[in-house]
Amino acid sequence: MTQQEEPSCSTHCPCCLQESLIITDSIFLDSLEEVEIYFFRGSTELLELIALLSNIAVILEKIIIRYEPSSAFLLSKEVREEVDSMCHPNIKVEFTVLSCQKRVITIKKIASKPQRVPAAAAIKVHPLPQIDAGPLQINCSMATDVDAGARGADHITDLPDDVLHSILARLPSNADAARTSVLSRRWRRVWTGVPALSFRYDESPSSSSAQQDQLDRIDAALSGHAATATVGVERLEIDVPYGVRDARVARWLLFASRRLNGELRVALPSETWCSRSRRWPPWS
Amino acid sequence: MEVDKGKGEAEETRKVAEADRDTVTLKSSDGKLFEVSKEAAARLSTVLAGMIAGGSIDDNGTDLKQIGSEALENVVDYCNKHANSIPSAALISSSISFNTAPFKEPEEWERKFVDRLSHDALFDLVEAANFLGMERLLDVTCHKISEMMKGKSPDQIREVFNIKNDYTKEELEEIRQELAWAFYDD
After folding, report:
1. What is the dihedral of CA A198, A201, A202, A205, to 10 degrees?
2. Which segments constitute the F-box domain (chain A) (predicted)?
């Protein structure tokens, strides 16, 4: 790969690829850090795009290639090796099956806010890394024959994001998942990819100020999530056994309208909505 | 489980086999051959199901270059055990909603199955399950890993999984402040 590319839109820019292939307004390919390709079937256009990215996206760390189970047989060893070989060694290539679970989950659409792009391919742009960012991971996740005997190897950090989400989703609470942010840079944003956010309190704190603190923590979690997440949430559940002010609920609904792709459940004691002159929903 | 056949034998198998076989032969990255029931493979692995349906199964051993023999042996072992166990209601329900438990809990035998694995073997198995699109096995292994994290402080988690902290002190402090809500002790 000796060819030098202009960082701007050159003749090799994927603009000349099928328009439907790339859903983005304007991106600078050389500032991409991570690229996810959905519904990969090994087509030449996508292979060209990968080669192009490897050539000019100098800080690209990771390409995640997602394919449907039914396309697995199209992705022969040769195709995988081809993809691997055309990528710069600093780029980590991950092949992941599109989980059917994810498609099942989107049961009730509450707002037309698809964060996840359903078409042929999507490119996600992340902010530029800080200058003092640690050394890049050069491990290729397809290679499983790491020195097995090596004690103290960090296996978990190398797992694909999807798998980490599925691990974190099984922790007792979102707070447990969020705390993994402090483990290392790799873990900074992982928790925000967990598909469900759930805040469920069965017992009411004794004082009303403790209730407010609890609600403040829900709000902090939601805004923290909105600030760092690159994908939407598939389920949001808030269940508290005491009354909540309308303004707060309105904020939750605003979060849901912007970030939620799937199911919403807000459970509050019934008197919250029925009491006095308040009517819910407010537009009825 | 392992069927390390000689070349001649493999040729023989090929002639006899073809269409009617009810097993598939899988080949690990280090060239070992394993046989697994076609039905179980197709039911438990979306990738193998796709390969079987697409006719890209090689009777001499379908190459799974990404999976080492130890992990593949565990995969095959899991498939066989699974085929023998009575599927419970938990396995049949599929759609996930607020009204159902978010995850299917591992069965007793599945717990035992992952509990006996070494740390390295567990992670090799997660990668293999992910690669082969084995949702159930991924559930079981992820459950195990999350159990290893539960109730532990970040320092303890780093120790269990050998994660190297590459943050500076200042960055760590900043993140802790941002995540004050998550560090609150309920």
Report:
1. 180
2. 153-190
Q: Are A96 and B127 in contact (CB under 8 A)?
A: no
Residue A125 CA to residue A31 CA, distance in Å, equals 8
Best probe of the A interface among B163, B168, B183, by most A CBs < 10 A, is B163
Name the E strands within A68-223: 92-97, 196-200
Q: CA of B5, closest CA in chain A: separation in Å?
A: 23
pTM of the model: 0.63
Q: Give domain limits for chain A.
A: 13-130, 195-284
Q: Which of A145, A166, A175 sits opposite B68 (nearest CB)?
A: A145
* Torsion of the alpha carbons at B162, B166, B168 and B171, rounded to the nearest 10: -100
For the stretch A40-88, pLDDT in tens is 777 777 788 888 788 777 778 888 887 776 666 667 777 777 888 888 8
**Which domains are present in chain B?**
7-87+95-150 (3.30.710.10)
Residue A277: band (very low, low, confident or very high) from pLDDT cuts 50, 70, 90: very low
